[in-house]
Amino acid sequence: MKSDILKVLQKFGAFQRGHFVLPSGKHSDIYIQCARLLQYPDKSMEFIEIVAKKIKNSNLNFDIILGPAIGGILISYELARQLNKPMIYIEKVSGKMTLGKDFEIKNSQKILIAEDVITSGKTVSETINLVEELGGEVVGIACMVNKENITLDKKIYSCINLDLKSYEEYECPFCKKNLPIQPCKI
User: Annotated binding residue at 73?
Assistant: First the structure.
């Protein structure tokens, strides 16, 4: 199954090889761009269905699905549709995560965070912090790809767990070989 998922990611150009500087600032030889797959609702729906089944089978109790912009919005929408739950999103405004539009998180509401790709966990951590500041409780994290098979203090429900590495610039083996940096592109 894992190899089938990787083949689909490669087929749609979502699994890219080269030397990349990721949004986190870390370097990697693999870039996962789920937007390539999300262009095709029928295919992305199948991936998200795998995640939805894992969540259903766990009997996770939650009130709202929250997606960080941009990648998490489409994932949270489709998960919300499949799980019959409401969804909201957050976005960065002046470098700070804030709730989008007129959304609110009520005290003690149980939140499932939905992302496209988790690499370093930075965006998820910022999202958890915002939810907790607003009085909510994060009960789990859903994603299409857990790129570095990262573990957080919340259960992660992913379509696929990979075990890929990323590096700080000073330790990057690709920089040491003077390999050119490629743009992370959609």
Answer: no
Q: Is the dihedral of CA 14, 38, 144, 22 positive or negative?
A: positive
Q: Please give the helix or strand (H or E) that residue 146 lies within, else none.
A: strand 137-146
The strand pair at 27-32 and 15-21 is best described as: antiparallel
96 among the known binding-site residues? no
123 is in an annotated binding site: yes
Using the predicted structure, report yes or no on whether residue 170 has a pLDDT greater than 90. Answer: yes
The answer to the question of whether 120 is labelled as a binding residue is yes
110 has binding-site annotation:
no
122 labeled binding residue: yes
| Residue reference for tokens 């500041």 | 133
Question: Residues 34-67: pLDDT tens digits?
Answer: 999 999 999 899 999 999 999 999 999 999 999 9
pLDDT digit string, tens, across residues 135-161 = 999 999 999 999 877 777 889 999 998
Check the annotation: does 166 bind a ligand. no
Q: Give residue limits of the domains in the chain.
A: 1-177
CATH of domain 1-177: 3.40.50.2020
